[in-house]
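Sequence dictates fold. Below is an illustrative record:

_____
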Amino acid sequence: MTITFADVERAARLLDGAVLRTPLLPSEEISRLCGCQILLKLENLQVSGSFKARGALVRMLALDPARRRAGVVAMSAGNHAQGVAYHAKRMGIPAVIVMPKATPLTKIERTRRLGASVVLEGETLAEAEKVAHDLASKSGFTFIHPYDDADVIAGQGTVAIEMLEGDAGFDCLVVPVGGGGLIAGMAVAVKSMNPEIEIIGVQCESYPSMLLALRGKPAECRGYTIAEGIAVKAPGRLTVPIVKSHVADILTVGETALERAVQTLMEAGKVVAEGAGAAALAAVLAHPRRFRGKRVGVVVSGGNVDARLLASILMRSLCYAGRLARLRIQVSDVPGMLARAATIIGDAGGNIIEIYHQRLFADVPVKFADVDVVVETTSLTHVTHIVESLRTAGLPTRVLSSSADGD
């Protein structure tokens, strides 16, 4: 089956007024960090938290009255689930969502709050999909595929129409890739509206299923990633040919790059994104030469991030930047030594957040103690300065956590 630009245009008409036309905003600070002009397409601002609401609605609008009454079933790690649940409730369609057991709690609870019944089955999306198909065959539900469906692909492609209507001067668009529904739909639209624009996909290193498919290699995907929304083991049958024809490149990014992108969007862009939603920016940050000097459209595809995970990423980013460090100081176990160490840290401009004593379980002489100190600092250079000040005062010190060299 071929998806045409007419299909995407039709989807745009169906979605008009039913989904948010999300902002396309420049970011001076992120552009400075990337060495190119960055415009962010903020699909994280959709009511359901991601672009998935587009394709889900187009597919459900195609159902006849009997199918709507029977209900729908979908499998999803979260964003497709919420898109289906949101529109199903709005349209009065019963919805059941099968989610892998490891799905973040925030996505599970939000899907339930949107009115869908949630079934937690399977360790992977593939296993969840099998359960969803079984439910469809037994209960008469219509299965709504998250990416391998012509209506869904056309709906996702409306993101590109909005971007090009908002700015005609792009050199390239960078798009997260899981099963390929978003990039396939966008590619169809872009190549009809302005074929000179490059389309570049981004996958996480542990799940490069589309990249492997384009190379004719079997999928070898496994492991943990914070970009669970694009952790897809097999791309769609419909999406692969479109990507092969229209997409210039597929880049991969590791977990550190994904964390950095989430943190950069939060701090420099004031944008909350999940790991998959930040993948496009991660690629631009990780491959600066590829984008230098260009006008780049970055799709922030979703913002449904678990609050604890987001907090952890932001705290880890402080350690990477040397703005938070944990030092281990060896002191004589006599009165006044802790105060002396604290004074040296304070005089060097460090702010002590936490202190832990290690007397019984540390590998130190009996008349000494290890003191672990969490210190707020300004940079990696500042961490090094504090460590040197402590060592100069006769207090052996090493860095336990930060990117500073404590040896």
Observations:
- Residues 191 and 378 are 47 Å apart (CA to CA).
- The radius of gyration is 25 Å.
